[in-house]
């Protein structure tokens, strides 16, 4: 169950559900009017980034989903619209690499320090000869290369199986049009990968590693999938709806720690300070956020800010943190999640 607020310890399960759905709808309605000056760009595979004035129907797409650690689901908006995982896939590749090799070996290859740079910056931890962290592109290429398997096909099959366990659905698939578009426009990542191999940071066939990474990025999900994947992490690595284990409990802490400090690109420090719970964003407009022991949050809205994070997604998570007391350092008295909803609030 979601922990009950101290002000109303005897609230019924039905009232819990009503309050949470009501609060979610209120939140959605407040965040729906997107602040146009904060939207810097949009992204589409094959097209790349484009300015707000060239956007069409994607301006209005917006969904918020919540899944509790008991498997209860709450959704509003365009929660059936699918989009590519893109950088959100980095979370799950990192978890697999940790499971396959252990944290000590992975740490030798990929650091855990915020880079302070954009996610696609050509900059490395030169002191340790490794990418700064697994949430930037360079780090994700290395963690993808660490996935065990008899060749790239088996490596990706394992990655896709893991994603399906996280989401609790067997029909997650790669969108081949997205993959083709990403492969045709991947010169930046290709250059980073070849440079890392030259510096001894990356081993193996660069083109195979690049394709493996982009295949993971091209898996299609909706906001409900993101919320269930986040809830799996919130639930100690076991999917709350199916009970299947996606990640060993001992590795969940490692993944959430890096998400908390590095998951929101070069906005990560502000995020940790203002919002205060682990999250990861992607250029398709998705944000995956984890409230350990309570719930997972999935938000989708394609309008991006200057950091590459969803404008509405950041607003949703900020309000959840502030209004509901979900910051990891909030006191129990600040947890307003289950306090009564006032009419007209």
What does this structure look like?
This protein is α+β, with helices and mostly antiparallel strands. It has helices at 13-31, 89-101, 103-109, 137-146, 152-167, 176-184, 187-198, 206-217, 223-234, 249-262, 268-274, 311-324; strands spanning 42-44, 48-50, 63-68, 73-77, 83-84, 220-221, 279-281, 286-291, 295-300. It has one domain (13-334): DD-peptidase/beta-lactamase superfamily (Beta-lactamase, 3-Layer(aba) Sandwich). The chain contains 12 helices and 9 strands. The strands form 3 sheets. A 5-stranded antiparallel beta sheet has the order 4-3-9-8-7. Strands 1-2 form a two-stranded antiparallel ribbon. Helix 2 crosses helix 10 and helix 5 (152-167) crosses helix 9 (223-234). Mean pLDDT is 90; it is low at 1-7 and 338-345.
Kindly list the characteristics that best describe this protein.
alpha+beta, Beta-lactamase, two-stranded antiparallel ribbon, 10% strand, disordered N terminus, 5-stranded antiparallel beta sheet, 345 residues, single chain, 12 helices
Total DSSP helices: 12
* Sheet of most strands: 5 strands, antiparallel
Radius of gyration computed on alpha carbons: 19 Å
Tally of strands: 9
Which regions are unreliable across 5 or more consecutive residues at pLDDT < 50? 1-7, 338-345
Structural domain tally: 1
What's the N-to-C terminus distance?
25 Å
Shape label: globular
Which CATH class applies here?
Answer: Alpha Beta
State the gist of this model:
This protein is of the alpha+beta class. It has a single domain, classed as Beta-lactamase (3-Layer(aba) Sandwich). It is built from 12 helices and 9 strands.
């Amino acid at each position: 169950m979601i922990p009950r607020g101290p002000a109303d310890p005897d609230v019924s399960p039905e009232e819990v559900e009503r309050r949470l759905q009501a609060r979610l709808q209120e939140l959605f309605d407040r965040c729906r009017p997107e602040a146009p000056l904060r939207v810097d760009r949009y992204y589409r595979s094959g097209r790349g980034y484009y300015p707000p004035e060239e956007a069409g129907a994607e301006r209005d797409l917006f969904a918020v989903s919540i899944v509790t650690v008991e498997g209860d689901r709450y959704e509003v908006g365009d929660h059936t619209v699918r989009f590519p995982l893109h950088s959100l896939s980095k979370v799950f590749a990192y978890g697999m690499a940790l499971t396959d090799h252990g944290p000590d070996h992975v740490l030798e290859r990929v650091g855990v320090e915020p880079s302070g740079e954009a996610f696609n910056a050509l900059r490395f931890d030169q002191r340790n000869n490794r990418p700064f962290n697994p949430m930037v592109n360079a780090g994700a290429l290395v963690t993808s290369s660490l996935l065990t398997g008899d060749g790239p096909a088996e490596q990706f099959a394992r990655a896709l199986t893991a994603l399906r366990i996280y989401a609790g659905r067997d029909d997650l698939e790669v969108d081949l049009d997205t993959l083709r578009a990403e492969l045709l426009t991947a010169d930046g990542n290709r250059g980073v990968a070849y440079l890392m191999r030259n510096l001894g940071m990356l081993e193996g066939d660069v083109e195979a590693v690049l394709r493996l990474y982009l295949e993971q990025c091209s898996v299609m999900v909706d906001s409900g999938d993101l919320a269930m994947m986040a809830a799996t992490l919130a639930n100690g690595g076991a999917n709350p709806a199916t009970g299947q284990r996606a990640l060993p409990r001992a590795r969940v802490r490692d993944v959430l720690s890096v998400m908390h400090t590095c998951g929101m690109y070069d906005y990560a420090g502000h995020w940790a300070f203002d919002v205060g719970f682990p999250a990861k964003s992607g250029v398709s407009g998705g944000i995956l956020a984890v409230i350990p022991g309570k719930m997972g949050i999935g938000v989708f809205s394609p309008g991006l800010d200057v950091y590459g994070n969803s404008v509405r997604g950041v607003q949703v998570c900020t309000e959840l943190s502030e209004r509901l007391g979900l910051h990891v350092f909030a006191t129990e008295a600040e947890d307003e999640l289950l306090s009564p909803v006032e009419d007209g609030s």
